[in-house]
């Protein structure tokens, strides 16, 4: 039986990044997951804190060429309701950042991660499914679907919403659904995007264009399930015209590059994010609609916290799951509630809800300091407090000088 310090189940973006981050310490890491069945055509917007994490792992140079900076994030009210919000633009320069983050296609990102993992001397890749977990005296045994068994001091579940690690660890989960489906595609356009992401708020949810290198963008278009299926089945030329019309021709003529993908929207949160020798990362622990570029960024904060806990000599593997659960609860719950409320406010036909949403966007449009707080918190939890402390220290230093 092979023994490892850590076994990570799931080889998506979160699982692969966790393997590289945790193997950096010299620990022996097993990474378990069968080969992907299809290429992921989606993109991921990583905020500045996550980009710094990717740089620390030495990965940025390899993916920088396919990434596009997000310098401006614009919200436009695309509803036909009585109370409509004004346009709101968030500019990274307002918070002294060159860019809020970067939009990265998932496929080349994953390919780069897999090359690094294959070259690592401390990561062993198993292209198998997990069959079951059993507790040993001072470790956990992972039984694979080919009959082999490996042993690990810590098991990390990064195996998605239907997590087998979560099920085997007897961690319950709360789920909910939305009457929405996300239509996901990439398109080219004749006018430059100027590194600006535009999010139209519609009665069915957000229509979000995010820049890619050159005159290309990715799109997440949230629709009712029937409308999303109808759009998916349109000829590409007809779909291109529909996207351009919804974009109000802001980017000129649109050409959809390949057939879109559809993803029904739902939410999920595990009752515990860790327990004993088990830790849950990413969509094994939490999932919500693709709004505000929060999904993978939240998952990478999971990885950062786990790495910090493993570096703490006072932490034992037997209790690290419980410590992780305590450390991650506030961030995960606050982000989940925020995204859920924003999404439901778009769907609600209740007039007071519409008025509150419109008033909130009016305030963000008119009050620069409030806008700065929201931008900093979107990039990094607690970022506004860090900026405030830094500003106070600078003022004190000037007075002393």
UniProtKB/TrEMBL annotation:
Entry keyword set: FAD, Flavoprotein, Monooxygenase, Oxidoreductase
InterPro entries given in the database record: FAD-bd, FAD/NAD-bd_sf, UbiH/COQ6, UbiH/COQ6_monooxygenase
Domain of life of the source: Bacteria
Known cofactor(s): FAD
Pathway as given in its UniProt record: Cofactor biosynthesis; ubiquinone biosynthesis
Ranges where the FAD-binding domain occurs: 5-313
Pfam families assigned to the protein according to its UniProt record, in alphabetical order: FAD_binding_3
Similarity comment: family membership: Belongs to the UbiH/COQ6 family.
NCBIfam families in alphabetical order: PRK07494.1, Ubi-OHases
Protein name: UbiH/UbiF family hydroxylase
Organism: Mycoplana rhizolycopersici
């Amino acid at each position: 039986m092979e023994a490892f310090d850590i076994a990570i189940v799931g080889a998506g973006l979160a699982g692969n990044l966790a393997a590289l981050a945790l193997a950096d310490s010299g620990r022996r890491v097993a990474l378990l997951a069968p080969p992907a069945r299809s290429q992921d055509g989606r993109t991921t917007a990583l905020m500045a804190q996550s980009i710094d994490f990717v740089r620390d792992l030495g990965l940025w140079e390899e993916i920088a060429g396919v990434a596009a900076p997000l310098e401006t994030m614009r919200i436009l009210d695309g509803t036909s309701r009585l109370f409509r919000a004004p346009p709101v633009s968030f500019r990274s320069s307002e918070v002294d950042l060159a860019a809020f983050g970067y939009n990265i296609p998932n496929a080349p990102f994953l390919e780069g991660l897999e090359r690094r993992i294959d070259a690592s001397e401390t990561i062993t890749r198993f292209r198998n499914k997990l069959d079951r977990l059993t507790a040993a005296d001072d470790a956990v045994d992972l039984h694979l679907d080919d009959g082999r068994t490996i042993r690990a001091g810590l098991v990390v579940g990064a195996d998605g919403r239907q997590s087998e690690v979560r099920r085997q660890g007897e961690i319950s989960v709360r789920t909910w659904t939305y009457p929405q489906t996300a239509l996901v595609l990439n398109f080219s356009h004749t006018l430059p995007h100027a590194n600006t992401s535009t999010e139209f708020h519609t009665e069915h949810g957000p229509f979000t264009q995010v820049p890619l290198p050159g005159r290309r963008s990715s799109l997440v278009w949230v629709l009712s399930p029937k409308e999303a299926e109808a759009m998916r089945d349109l000829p590409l030329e007809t779909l291109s015209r529909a996207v351009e019309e919804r974009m109000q021709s802001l980017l000129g003529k649109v050409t959809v590059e390949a057939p879109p993908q559809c993803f029904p929207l739902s939410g999920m949160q595990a009752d515990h994010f860790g327990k004993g020798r088990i830790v849950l990362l990413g969509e094994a622990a939490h999932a919500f609609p693709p709004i505000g570029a929060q999904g993978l960024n939240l998952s990478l904060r999971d990885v950062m916290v786990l790495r910090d806990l493993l570096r703490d000599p006072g932490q034992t593997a037997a209790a690290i799951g419980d410590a992780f659960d305590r450390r991650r609860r506030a961030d995960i719950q606050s982000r989940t509630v925020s995204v859920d409320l924003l999404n439901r406010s778009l769907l609600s036909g209740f007039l007071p809800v519409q008025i509150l949403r419109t008033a909130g966007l009016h305030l963000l449009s008119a009050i620069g300091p409030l806008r700065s707080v929201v931008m900093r918190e979107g990039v990094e939890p607690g970022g506004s407090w860090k900026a405030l402390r830094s500003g106070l220290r600078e003022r004190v230093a000037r007075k002393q000088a």
